[in-house]
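Q: What would this chain look like folded?
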Amino acid sequence: MEANLRGCYLTGADFENASLYKADLRGAKGITLEQLTKAKTLYLAQFDEEILNQIKTNIPELVGK
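A: My prediction, written as C-alpha cells:
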C-alpha cells in the first residue's frame, strides 16, 4: 500500500501497526520518531533527511536494508 502524506500535518497521528510501505512522508510536519516506532513497517518509505537519519540510527529494523 502506498500513501502520499507529503507535506501533511501529522502531529499526534497514531501509526500503531500501520504499514507505511512506500509512503511519501517528505515535508511532513510534526512527525516524531516515537510515532514511527509504533508502525509495522517503514520499508521503502520516503522521509526528509533529518528524520531518516534518526530512523536508521534508532529503528533500522523498520526500514530494512
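The CA atoms of residues 3 and 48 lie 16 Å apart.
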